[in-house]
Amino acid sequence: MSKKDSEKIVHKEPALVNAAKLLMLIPFIYSGVFYTGTVLMLISNGSFEAPRRVSAALSAGTVLVSSGIATAFFRRYYLSFIQAAAGAFVHFRGAHHIVIMIRKKLDTHSVGADLVLMDREYMLHLYPLALVAVIALGLAVWAMVVQIKEYRQDRHMRETAPVKSIIDDR
User: Which of 88, 25, 84, 13 is nearest to 58 (CA)?
Assistant: First the structure.
């Protein structure tokens, strides 16, 4: 083992940060993978008529959110938040279009009592992907606080460090 290896500082993150990163996976798997995949299959089979831009928005949003989650695991929290927020926004636009289409069909057609709340069910299935962006925002704020704290500690160390005297060098 070389001297550089023994002096290498390992930056460990608090357990809460690691838990938040794992918590991001829950709404992603629930909303982004399962229900978005189901809706995309319904659209591609022709069972649900929607413009191509809706399926493109759902797909692109899910891919962006997944890249944001992956980026968070590499400790790039600012980039993770940007990707997750952009992906959640794009996904939300597509999901909102689907909910509006369902709401219009419910208003114009007579449906059974079990289908009356179908638009709310789709909201509960497709909207939770925005939670990933909220968690990514929390991680980005935490990273900013840590950076400010480290900067202040470094500045304090520089300001209070002993100064080498010019007179002693003679």
Answer: 88
Gap between the terminal Cα atoms of the chain: 40
Number of domains in the chain: 1
CA-CA distances (angstroms) from residue 87 to 94, 98, 142? 11, 17, 21
| Residue 2 belongs to a domain | no
User: pLDDT tens across 8-59, in order?
Assistant: 666 688 889 999 999 999 999 988 888 888 888 888 888 878 888 888 998 9
Q: What is the pLDDT of residue 3?
A: 54
Q: Residue 11 contacts by C-beta under 8 Å, 6 or more apart in sequence?
A: none
Phi, psi of 68 (to 5 degrees): -65, -40
